[in-house]
Amino acid sequence: MTLSMTGFGRSEGVLEEKKISVEVKSLNSKSLDMSIRVPPHFREKEMEIRKFLNDRLIRGKIDCYISCEMLGGQRGVKIDKDIVRSYIEDLRDCAGDGPDIEYLKMAVRLPEALSSKPGELERIDEESWDFLKDLMDEACRKLEDFRKKEGEVLRNDVLGAVEKISTYLGEVLPYEEQRIAGIRERYEKYLKEFENIDEGRYYQELMYYTEKLDISEEKVRLEQHLFYFREVLDREECNGKKLGFIAQEIGREINTLGSKANHVEIQKLVVKMKDELEKIKEQSLNIL
Hints:
Layout: E1 7-15, E2 18-27, E3 32-37, H1 46-57, E4 60-70, E5 77-79, H2 81-95, H3 100-107, E6 114-116, H4 126-170, H5 172-192, H6 199-212, H7 216-235, H8 240-261, H9 264-284
Parallel strand pairs: 3-4
Antiparallel strand pairs: 1-2, 2-4, 5-6
Helix pairs in contact: 1-4, 2-3, 4-7, 4-9, 7-8, 8-9
């Protein structure tokens, strides 16, 4: 199965008046590059969150955003009434009689008048952690479904390019036969222009240059690389890096084919092969 590195998944749920949301986004990258944003009270679980995402998503530029929102009119802070009353009394003693509302405005700005609600937002309990893991699992499943759909599109594009290279390779054969015949005719023409030519040496030279320009081995290796590419594409998961390596080998054979072609029509076919190979390389970078 071919999987794309691009994907997106989102999940949310409510637990004890807390709405927790998880968003996971993935883009292509040579390795795992992870960025996580979590509320302060989830920070103690950040390493476990990273491990969870690492095991599930394997590779790519991963962005994970987790948010927690209090519902039902609950507030994230608590007013310490005793401290505020004490401040108001001290302010009244200092300033004399005055409107209590003004003293209250000043008192709530003083240290320790406001504090976070204990228990709810300071630490994450086991129930909240299990709930968060279920949400992360759901978000990752949605992202994986996205990757599968994108991967099928990538597979069809890459496979189409491979088939075109194979087709162009098959079109080389008739020009290859013309090329060898042309080389032989050219050398025979040169032979007639000279006297006292050692025919044995002449045929040795002809054989040498014919073998030097022979591309049969390159054609066989190129066809083998194309077959192996198809095999890996269909049988192995998380195969993006391996497909990239095979594409490099395909490129080497195409380049050698071009350098030994010595025929304008074969050169044109080589250019077409290189064009399709660039598509393969570009798409392989997006395959997980």
